[in-house]
Amino acid sequence: MKFISKTLAEITSFISASIYTEKYASLNGLMQKIDARAKLVIVLAFIFLAVYTSSIWVLAFLFTIAIILSISSRISIRHYMSRVLLFIPLFTSIVAIPSIFSFITPGEGIISFFGVSITYEGVRAALFLIARVTAAVSFSILLITTTRWNELMNAMLFFKIPKIFVMIAEMSYRYIFLLLYSFQNMMLSAKSRAVSGIGATKAWKIYAPIMGAMFIKTHEMHEKVYLSMLSRGYGVEIKGNSRKMRIDIGSTAAIAAAFLTVIAVYMIL
Amino acid sequence: MHIPDGYLGPITCVVMFIIMLPVWWYAAKWAKERLSSRAIPMLAMLSSFSFVVMMFNWPVPDGTTAHMVGGTLIAIILGPWAAVIGVSVALMIQAFFFGDGGITAFGANAFNMAFVLPFAGYLMYRALLKFFNSDDVRARAIAAGVAAYIAINVAALAAAIEFGVQPYIAKGYCPYGIEVAVPAMLFAHLTTAGPVAAVVTAGVVAYIYKYRPDLMEVK
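YS: structure for the whole thing
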């Protein structure tokens, strides 16, 4: 039963994440006011700096900026921190643990036991990786929580990402919810018919047919979707609604401020 | 297998994007020519499918949950180029919606999971069918299972090499060299994720072959 419940929990967390995004993206905060295209440029500039820099102070500074921006965008700090820290930095910390020992990173020992020692260089390398990952993730979460999906897609069209990818991504995002709904129903009906619970072996047996049925359903659905698109006057061209819009002064100023910060941080620290 | 931002140095990120650009370009061209305007809804639904598939939690002995089965499946049924587009878009949604998989590492992630994985799976599947010299349901299921097993491991190897070279070319990123990264990644994928992918892909192919054999004849 556990596996089905876990999968169901994952579906719910996806749906609640999308609800939270809608909620935070519609608030009247600093990041929400900035044009999606400008925001994409700004966030990418900070992420590039986080990936490029070789100073731990720059990383600490970037993390601070991300937190300040999230506060001024009215994102609840608890929600923001749990989204930033819970998954990737936590995972990275576990991954980084072996690298503090002398058999991975030789160097000056700090403590040693049973012939293995924790080295200064190793701790440094592990902390560096964790700091870098955290700084980068904090900006991508900032972008994700303050931008609506369709605005992000329009921004991508503006930056000449091939239309076919953007169109597919837009449609795909929409149909994820429909597929999840039918997937959830299949899981629930399997769960509700199991009196004594579904063990691992049984879960293996029911998953493959569920997935196969999902594939067939998806395939049958695309035909219907295509026909209904045609009947509504679908042409190959799509029009993003902000492609030719000019970027407002506030957003331009935000880009300028972000670039100045990036350059200044890079020069000074 | 989703590499976050910060594991790969800047040079690796740029190189992986440069490798992927012609692949994406060709895949887009292929879709336009071969699949007509029907392609767009179909590929969109397949991306949603491979996204949803990544949400399954598989019961495996050590409690880890293994994802990533869709690539080989789409490649077998619709051809590897369709899988390139479908999985790339699913990865893009994951990166830009969940923050799962880095933005600077997107090129690398797409290379491993949307290019190497479907092509390895597809080629292996075709080769095995030729080798078995039959295409009944058993041959197809076994070929698909073996292909999925090989594909996920080849993709894991590619990812391991990408972060395994970091200590030599860029300090301050992934601290593990090839001699640690490759065995660690392959151990996890050879023993848990691989068998899951194999059994599931085989099961799904057998199921589809049983109920919609026409779908399996597309390629």
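YS: worth flagging: DSSP finds eleven helices and two strands in chain A.
IM: good catch. Also The beta strands of chain A are 109-113, 116-119.
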